[in-house]
TrEMBL record, chains A, B:
Keywords: Cell membrane, Hydrogen ion transport, Ion channel, Ion transport, Membrane, Transmembrane, Transmembrane helix, Transport. GO terms for cellular component: plasma membrane. Its main location: membrane. It comes from the Eukaryota. This is Otopetrin 2. The keyword Metal-binding does not apply.
């Protein structure tokens, strides 16, 4: 197997010389003309991913319709083959990089932060439980089903275990051997995760639609009680599997962006993550957030029970009214808090962090992109309500809910993006400076959380490398006079992030575990018809749910950085 | 009105100092902390565009269905208001930039090349004719229609005239006053064009679907013959209006990317576009291309006549067979030629051009993105044909056609992207060096077409600025020995680009002017049903048609550069 041919050998040497030299203000030397063209190497892997994703998308969407002669086992067959190829590639990758000492000359400290990897393991465990339930459910029908229905969850379980291990150990790697093979392998992994995600989302939507539409017509009769438990169990665990695929996709994408990248080691020695959750003073944010979370759980349970059990339309309306009122209060509060946070950032004197950071670019793109799902649902709701002639209380609540949903997503995105682009707080660094100067120490001991310290190996603005030279005398004076004011601001931002974080969790839980006011309230269903409105919701809602999960991760980062 | 406050005044000064200094190897000084954060300024305009686009998309998609209580005049009302706002903003922009002498300190020479602006004017003229036809058609129904149906084409005509003038004079501008207003105005213009595009595409699809499905049921009776001519006329002119909107969108997007950008003037003095079409030797490419174009036009006319006039299924099958065979031959030839071109590039010794260039980045993204439309249609076709049990000659031809469509798009994209990323040919510059050295001239007279000469004002690799210092002695020797070989390669690439260009024109004309084998061949329609397959084709085909137009523009650029 060996280390393979190194395409970037020449530029590896020149770049490392540049980064270990004693002139940190000099950018790394420009790539030589012999260096393989990076865009060209990426293009092939992108083409591979696009074609595989389209093929999977075609099969999944065709398999979702009963009248179309594509069946779910065709989809499972494709997914099983893709997962097997990815498993083989991951083993090849792990063996080849462990054998070759200079395969990974540097690591991207921004990639795969510990809570992302922790979340991945949590979702992986739930996915494994789901696979066990699936195997149990399908094995009771073994005689009359095709073998692929049992093989698929078994292969998926192996895939989840191996991929989670792979991402745990390799998420930060900047690989420098087998560049093209690695790019293609990573894109294959990404596409497989997206295909599994598409399949799970479609499967869940079809199941939801069936249980909503056929509930009153026929009650399925199961011979054994345990099959029913297995089936209900794995449908309840689908949201975790869906999130697992998305988390894994995001981490694999960042790994793909980092293939062949060089990062200066200097700036990465000085910061360590210290998540001092309980050393910080906070109270209002977490209390308000916990109240929202607990009352939201209560509302969800009452709503599910009332909507699903009774055919009484007045009880259903009561449940809908309660659901909308809770959401309107929650979204209104969150919007106000986000506006407050953005205003606070306006008065913040911290520098913007403009450095190259694939993880952050992806974060921002995912936040903006995933919000489109909820935006679309809300706009369709608004048009339906405004264009309908009948007016009642539920419609008014639904309209307010849709408008606030748009406002809240917009303000929250602005708040999070501003937060992610701030430099880590300066007070801590100034503090260090004060402590350090009397002793003349040269070692910079940054004792705050400094996740976003820029890597000077990247392209632009090398003179803003954080350190002693970046602090101007005027700021030293300011740090003596204005530190109390600054601390008040930082505390406020922390409270805001904590409240928003907990509120986003409850707004994730509600749709992820089955609350569908979009169907229970029949306004839009009557307006757009039985085929268009379910299509809109089933395509857009998964993005809306993913948005909440992703906002939680980003808000945790904003919390730590403020 | 005045010049407004200049947010980037400080960095304007520092950047210009850097770019006019005598150290071309030094990158421009990093932005100061006082400089307004570019991403933040862009974010608001993006949010505005996203919300407006979603609102327009909701109304347009709802208006397309007869049973939904949103009517086309609701859509026209929104579009009219948007166009009026854009007209006001364009006038404000033109007045404010003409009053303020330093509003546009530099121009992006890559933006708005002359054939793009020429194409824009051509499509604008056809759009105006279409508007005249529309006004004529609707004014004959004036008594029973709402006024907006006549106001809309009038406002659209004014909008087209003013926007075309605006893009003709301002496409290259890098604006530096009213940064945020300009960004929002440009995004509003972009969204308006996209909304007009969506509306036109939907209108045309609905019209096509009606004429296909209702053709045999009822024949519409018009009181006056002239109304019928007007109606047919404006539906025939729709493809031009659709392309106009997309061309304008692309140019406005590049202007938006260039707001607040600084470009070094040095590197832009030395190149001028010299499109020496008839001084170059070519023969095979243009002859083959013209044969394809003419025979394609013949095939299209025969196909349209046979499919539309007769209800005889054997004649229809004949027409489909002829259409598929022509396309298979054409696509096969194009794929082979693209592979040949890519192989030629592999042996090409020219350097890759890695410099920042928003126009090129957009070109590549649009090529890759627009190809997805045709990919999706082809994959759905393949799945339908493979999963169907019945096999006949038409299905085999359709399958080959779909597979070749995928292959041709892929190979053509690789060829174009490689071509766009090449430096302009070196021989000309070496030639200049030879001519220059005996006389000791310092003025670099590049007499070839050098569209892609990098701007050293952008971020990376300032040492590869074209000029005398970039040419190594080994290359000088090579230029003496290998210039014949090089010329043969360049000639081959030119032939290829010219053939591909003409072939793409005929592949644009065919679907744009009504050939719909996707519906005439009823395989997929039976497989996916009457609602899903039209939805797939109507959403994806406009992107496929746009791909062809855009490929023509890109191939023209590749032709000029090789």
């Amino acid at each position: 197997m060996g280390c393979g041919h190194k395409d970037d050998k020449a530029s590896l040497a020149s770049s490392q010389t540049a980064s270990f030299s004693h002139q940190p203000h000099q950018p790394p030397s420009p790539p030589t003309s012999k260096e393989v063209w990076k865009k060209g190497g990426r293009m092939f892997s992108i083409l591979l991913a696009v074609h595989l994703a389209l093929l999977a998308c075609t099969l999944v969407s065709s398999g979702a319709f009963e009248k179309i002669a594509v069946h779910d086992y065709d989809v499972f067959f494709l997914l099983t083959i893709m997962m097997l190829i990815v498993i083989v590639w991951i083993i090849f990758y792990l063996v080849s990089t462990s054998r070759c000492p200079d395969a990974i000359p540097c690591k991207d400290s921004h990639a795969g932060p510990v809570w992302l990897r922790g979340g991945l393991i949590l979702f992986a465990i739930f996915s494994l439980v789901m696979d066990v339930f699936k195997i149990g459910y399908y094995s009771s029908f073994y005689s009359c089903l095709s073998a692929i229905k049992i093989i698929y969850p078994i292969v998926q379980a192996i895939f989840v275990i191996i991929q989670t291990y792979f991402l745990w150990v390799s998420a930060k790697d900047c690989v420098h051997v087998h560049l093209n093979v690695t790019r293609c392998g990573l894109m294959l992994t990404l596409t497989t995760n997206l295909a599994v995600w598409m399949s799970a989302v479609t499967d869940e939507s079809v199941h939801k639609a069936h249980s909503k539409l056929k509930k009153n017509v026929t009650e399925e009769i199961f011979k054994c009680q345990i099959c029913q438990i297995f089936k209900n169990g794995y449908f309840w665990l689908y949201p975790f599997n869906i999130e697992y695929s998305l988390f894994a996709s995001a981490m694999v994408y960042v790994m793909w962006k980092n293939v062949g990248r060089f990062i200066d080691h200097h700036s990465h020695h000085i910061h360590r993550l210290k998540f001092r959750l309980f050393q910080r003073t906070f109270f209002v944010g977490i209390v308000l957030g916990l109240i929202t979370l607990v009352s939201g759980l209560g509302v969800l349970i009452v709503y599910e029970v009332q909507v699903n059990s009774s055919n009484d339309s007045s009880k259903k309306n009561e449940a809908l009214t309660m659901y909308y009122i809770f959401n309107i209060v929650c979204l209104g509060l969150m919007s106000l808090v986000c506006i407050g946070g953005s205003v606070t950032y306006r008065f913040d004197k911290r520098d913007m962090d403009r450095h190259k950071n694939p993880t952050r670019t992806l974060d921002v793109a995912l936040l903006m992109g995933a919000a489109l799902g909820q935006y679309a649902i809300s706009y369709y709701s608004i048009v339906a309500i405004v264009a309908s002639t009948s007016r009642d209380a539920i419609s008014a609540l639904n309209l307010t809910y849709a408008l606030l949903m748009i406002a809240q997503h917009t303000f929250q995105n602005i708040f999070i993006i501003e937060g992610l682009h701030r430099q880590p707080p300066k007070e801590d660094r100034k503090h260090d400076l004060h402590q350090k100067n009397p002793y003349g120490l040269t070692f910079v001991n940054v004792n705050a959380v400094s996740l976003r310290i820029p890597d000077s190996g990247s392209a632009l603005a090398p003179s803003t490398v954080p350190g002693i030279e970046a602090i101007r005398p005027s700021e030293l004076v300011q740090s003596l006079t204005g530190s109390k004011k600054m601390n008040w601001r930082r505390k406020f931002l922390r409270e805001i992030s904590m409240f928003l974080l907990l509120s986003n969790i409850i707004l994730w839980i509600m749709p992820a575990f089955g609350a569908r006011p979009q169907f229970d309230n029949d306004k839009e269903l009557n307006f757009y018809g039985d085929s268009m409105w379910p299509a809109i919701v089933d395509i857009c809602l998964p993005f809306g749910i993913f948005y909440r999960m992703h906002a939680v991760a980003s808000l945790l980062e904003v919390y730590i950085m403020s």
